[in-house]
Amino acid sequence: MPRSQRACKNDQERPGHRSQNAQAQTSNVCAKLITTNRKGRREVLLLSVSRPLTIGRNAEICSYVVSDPVVSSVHCKLYAIRADRINGIKDLSSNGLFLNGHWIRGSSAILMHGDILQLPSSQKFTCVHSAQANRDRGDVFSSATVTENSLGRWIVTSHSLGSGSFATVRLAMDTELSVHKQVACKTIKRKVSDKRNTVAKEAQILGALNHPNINRVYDVVSDNKHIHIFLELCTGGDLFSYISHYEASAYRLCEGEAQYIMYQLLQGLEYLHERLISHRDLKVRTHPSSMKPENILLYSPGPYPRIQIADFGLARPKSYQETLNVCGTVPYLPPEGIVALDNKLMGYVGIPADCWSAGVIMYLMLSGRHPFDYGVVPGDSNWPSSIVIQSHNTESQYWLSSERNDEVVKRRIIEGDVEFLDEIWGGIPEARALCQWFLSPDPQTRATVHDAQNSRWIRCDLQELKTAYQRRMNSR
């Protein structure tokens, strides 16, 4: 966005303000920030995916100027991620800002409908979402009159970040330090006993892990009715949403960015596999209408993002052992997992399965499509909604888009039917070689994380990757 343009719309026109630009954005607006300036005039700032907002004193840089001396040159940046329905703010100032009375500094936060943002000793902004998400019902925070619940050091709000068949994720705040921090609170009802063990296992596994590319568990609080898991909050959306922004490039990332994201994924997987833990459900959505939850998250918005591996509900310790419990998402299962899915006497090992899933993700980032889950199955809709079903083992679970489409995907995986178009992969032979190695049908010959880190595709830019990685991790 040119710096000279203003991404705000005034109730009363200001000299030189180009109102037609704001009006043209109206249909794409994700949120509005309503404020009253120092002259007592009400102003409305429009936030859209293509036009983020910057607030500060510098008129040459900021899209909205607040001239108070307590305000930094560029105090904060507001952004929108439509696919994830996230409106967020990143503090860039020296003295922070207040969100609903909580002081935050040097971090990103999610802006929910009705939130009040205040610059220190200066203007207030009220956030109004253009499309308000439906409220979840039937959980501990379901009452319309309840906006906050205190659980020890944590304040859990009524703002929902997502919900599933047995758990709800809410926005929460860590109030232990003077500078508060947003976190995610995953709440599960204790009466759902068959799912309780899954969440308890997730908390147990994650609680012992500490790595910049793995979603961190801060605390677990239990009572007679619920288990509350407090998790590190990722404010940049998920990897699919990031890839989907590259519409002009056929939803493909450039090689450098895909390489940087894969480098981080390998760092996280190496940390897990060294501790004999397999994730067993790494995946990226393949279409905006898909209901499959994603577990490759962006820690904060921006190019060359830092990623985190999340959702360890299906993770397995002692992953060197073969398991008969087939779980995961069908389009991301390896051939041995597909075979075991239909044969209760056969099993598979989790670590090679993670490497297969990493290859699928790599293929999707560089080609713009899934290597196996593509096209239309006759008689099915183009992109049917996903549902959860059970396999022959009652403890196993996986996602299925539709039975007929799923049978086609399983056949393609077993047959190794992967197409590497020369127009995409011809110019990146090292990337193609690694992706093919990851997608080897035989788990004994499939690339390991160690193999991938020593592949030519990674080694040729290793120093640059390490430098960029350390710089990003130190800036968190």
From TrEMBL:
Keywords of the record: ATP-binding, Kinase, Nucleotide-binding, Transferase
Region (Disordered) residue spans: 1-25
Chain ranges of the FHA domain: 53-104
Protein kinase domain span: 155-458
Family annotation (SUPFAM superfamilies): Protein kinase-like (PK-like), SMAD/FHA domain
Annotated residues for binding of ATP: 186
Domain of life: Eukaryota
Molecular function in Gene Ontology: ATP binding; protein kinase activity
PROSITE patterns per record: FHA_DOMAIN (PS50006), PROTEIN_KINASE_ATP (PS00107), PROTEIN_KINASE_DOM (PS50011)
Alphabetical list of Pfam families matching this protein: FHA, Pkinase
Family the UniProt entry places it in: Belongs to the protein kinase superfamily. CAMK Ser/Thr protein kinase family. CHEK2 subfamily.
This protein's name: Kinase-like protein
